[in-house]
Amino acid sequence: MQKILEEVVEENRPLAKRGRVASYIPALAKADPNHLGICIVDVNGDIYKIGDADVKFTIQSISKVISLMLALIDNGEKVFEKVGREGTEDPFNTLYKLDFPHIEKPVNPMINAGAIATTAQIKGDKFGRILELIRRITGNADIDYSREVYLSEKATGEKNRAIAHLMKARGIIEEDPEEILDHYFKQCSIEVTACDLAKIAVFIANGCSGLESYGKIDRKTLSRNLLAIMTIGGMYNVSGQYAAQVGVPSKSGVGGGIMAAVPGRMGIGVFSPPLDENGNSIAGCAIMKSLSDRLDLSIF
Ligand code: GLU
What we know:
The protein has eleven helices and seven strands. The chain is an alpha+beta fold.
């Protein structure tokens, strides 16, 4: 495995040069484009890693999987009364369809609108519980959020603000939009490593076994929903293409991370900050394709 990781990094490292680190959130523009790391954790708990697998970066959109997990634990499949689970060709921060009278909810929990509507359904201290769940699944009690990135997101989050207020006006969310956004900006600013992502991914890949309580949902239904929704929407508006080429339920974030869950086999965390035009890590996607080809990971 270590040899495969070495080869995959060598082959795909040059691709990072073709991408650009996210800059629409000013604090993200400080990311080092040369960072590149991979971590694989298999269902037996064996860990393989290479490069910058222990370097911290912000989880960003990958947190949407965790907020969906908690919303499902709290509400069961009632969650889908307020957010759909269908694919979309619209970008992650799309807004316009929410103003169409016949559209009743955001299309899925992986676009920003859907994620904000999902976080709104978490009971109690939404952000506190998301952070706690990530710490529990990874076994890493030191995980925290970046105050700098959080403040930067909050200061520049006008589009997300517009989305949340429009959803309040449409009755999709009931609470104060600013309060929900505060939880959302914080959840996106949680700092993780590729190895933390691999641990969350293997938990999902292994049928979410090991949580003390599943609340309103059984663990099989929980993991099936997460894997299905990552497949149809986890890689933004190119999720279908990624499914055909890589075939592993995955979620990416504009911090440069990809979290990939290979059902029954392993979790993979990849980190490389330069992004393509869709917001996916450019070397990260190519690394996932190489790993899928070599290790025969596609579920299709
Ligand atoms: N915090 C980012 C935003 O809401 C997350 C986007 C992403 O990773 O796709 O714009």
